[in-house]
Design a protein that fits this description.
Layout lengths: L8 H19 L3 E5 L5 E3 L2 E2 L6 H7 L7 E6 L5 E7 L4 H7 L4 H9 L3 E4 L3 H9 L4 E3 L6 H21 L8 E3 L2 H9 L3 H24 L6 H14 L4 E2 L4 E4 L20 E6 L1 E3 L2 E2 L2 E6 L6 H19 L9 H16 L7 H6 L40 E4 L2 E3 L15 E3 L2 E6 L2 E4 L8 H7 L2 H4 L1
Parallel strand pairs: 1-7, 5-6, 7-8
Antiparallel strand pairs: 1-4, 2-3, 4-5, 9-12, 10-11, 11-14, 12-13, 15-18, 16-17, 18-19
Bound molecules: glycine (GLY) and manganese (II) ion (2 copies).
């Protein structure tokens, strides 16, 4: 069976060429080098599952380990692209899987030249020779950095001898801010991938709701969720699923997922399916037995109101800090209503008295990475305004430590977060994860329907 994809290779290749051209337009003249992610050894000869580096995937679509992109602008702004890849290898392909190889990569990924990865260091001086600038990020792989400086040292000798007045080596410029800025505004193909990831993720959450019943293991809910992700074509999650019953929800990045959920407890699931390298990020919280207690419902409605208000704050031009401020203000009002805080909500908000119960941010960019690249503010700390094509999460929550004596007893151990993925549009925003139920009545109708029927 062919793998499920949302984007055809031809469409992806065309988009990637446009992305390289747009990025080099911003960077200007110079050689751009982007290696993929490093493979990571788990033990012996077994590796962790490889996922390509997002920057390389965004610029080429090339999925294999040990690949490096080199690209630069030629005269008249035409972009020249060279991709270094693993060569075909009969034995390694029997053990580890098929490779595009040097010819296959050139045929498939619309680049001008491909070479074996083993020739990269030998060819780099020649690629660098005409350039005054090198766009390359250091710090990811110290042996790569060391070898790069060896190439610089060799160039310095050549350039001194050439008498052409060139600096000893190219200026080294980090392309990450420009790459992050480019990846922050999603194109039509990326939005389609995110829509599909959102749809698959929503279905996975609903699958977990349907099988829920008192006593079910967190891992069993995770199995229902992720079986749906996989069967709908998501090859991996965007991050490890958080499946937290009862007070485990108060651990923000809970990952044990190994306890049974007892009658009367809530389940918080924060999970996202990755589709064609794009991930969704949805959190839903619901009662394992299909009925919110009065206390649970009261907290849930506070979080839901705050989340809806924060989503309404997403529109072009509005500060990227607005959803967080709106959520904090609404949650503070709710904390007063719930009897957790006492006093004037405006002053309590100003004094950040909500912090023990709401200690995380409300939003982050979303795309190829769950905490996607892109600046939120300028260097002086002033929030940027939203722009159409950005995608972010809106995910307020409230968490009451089971041992916190300042909190009314019936609220202790309740942890609730509600998270959706929001696309900024020309005139406001669109909720990509709207299909995932979050109203109290809808959750109560769905949870456990499989075993109650
Ligand atoms: N799933 C991690 C987050 O919501 O940021
Ligand atoms: Mn998130
Ligand atoms: Mn999340």
């Amino acid at each position: 069976m062919k793998p499920v994809t949302t984007v055809s290779t031809a469409e992806l290749v065309a988009r990637c060429a446009a992305r390289r051209a747009a990025l080099l337009e911003v960077l200007g003249d110079g050689l751009l080098l982007v290696p993929t992610a490093a493979e990571s050894l788990r033990n012996g000869d077994v590796h962790h599952t490889f996922r390509p580096g997002s920057d390389l995937a965004w610029l080429t679509g090339f999925p294999e380990p040990e690949s490096i992109l080199a690209a630069w602008r030629e005269a008249k702004g035409r972009v020249r692209t060279v991709l270094f890849v693993r060569p075909k290898d009969k034995v390694r392909e029997i053990w580890d899987g098929r490779r595009y190889g040097v010819q296959g990569a050139k045929r498939t990924f619309g680049v001008d030249e491909t070479h074996p990865i083993g020739e990269f260091w030998k060819r780099l001086p020649g690629l660098l020779a005409p350039h005054r600038r090198l766009f390359c990020r250091l710090g990811a792989d110290s042996s790569f950095d060391r070898r790069l400086f060896e190439v610089f040292a060799g160039l310095a000798g050549q350039r001194a001898r050439s008498r052409a007045g060139l600096p000893a080596h190219p200026d080294l410029v980090d392309p990450s801010p420009a790459l992050a800025g480019a990846r922050l505004i999603k194109d039509a193909v990326e939005i389609r991938c995110l829509e599909r990831a959102a749809q698959v993720t929503a279905e996975g959450h609903v699958a977990a709701m349907l099988v829920a019943q008192p006593g079910i293991g967190e891992h069993q809910l995770q199995a229902a969720l992720e079986a749906t992700f996989r069967s709908l074509g998501s090859r991996r999650n965007g991050y490890d699923s958080i499946v937290a019953g009862g007070a485990n929800a108060c651990v923000l990045h809970y990952h044990e997922n190994d306890r049974p959920v007892r009658r009367g407890e809530l389940v918080l699931i924060d999970a996202g399916a990755e589709i064609d390298h794009y991930t969704a990020d949805i959190t839903r919280t619901w009662p394992v037995d299909g009925r919110f207690s009065d206390a649970q419902r009261a907290v849930y409605e506070v979080v839901l109101r705050a989340q809806k208000a924060a989503i309404r704050a997403v529109k072009p031009g509005a500060g990227t800090d607005r959803p967080h401020l709106v959520a904090q203000r609404e949650l503070t009002k709710g904390l007063v209503k719930l009897g957790v805080l006492r006093g004037d909500p405006a002053k309590l908000f100003h004094d950040k008295k909500f912090m023990p119960y709401y200690m995380h941010g409300t939003s982050h960019w979303l795309g190829m990475d769950v905490h996607d690249v892109g600046a939120y503010q300028d260097e002086s700390g002033k929030a940027h305004g939203f722009r159409a094509g950005q995608v972010l999460t809106v995910e307020p929550g409230l968490y009451f430590d089971p041992k916190d004596r300042h909190v009314p007893k019936e609220l202790r151990g309740i942890g609730i977060r509600i998270e959706d993925d929001i696309l900024v549009t020309a005139d406001g925003c669109r909720n990509l994860t709207e299909a995932c139920p979050k109203e109290v009545r809808d959750l109560e109708a769905l949870v456990g329907r499989d075993w109650r029927a």
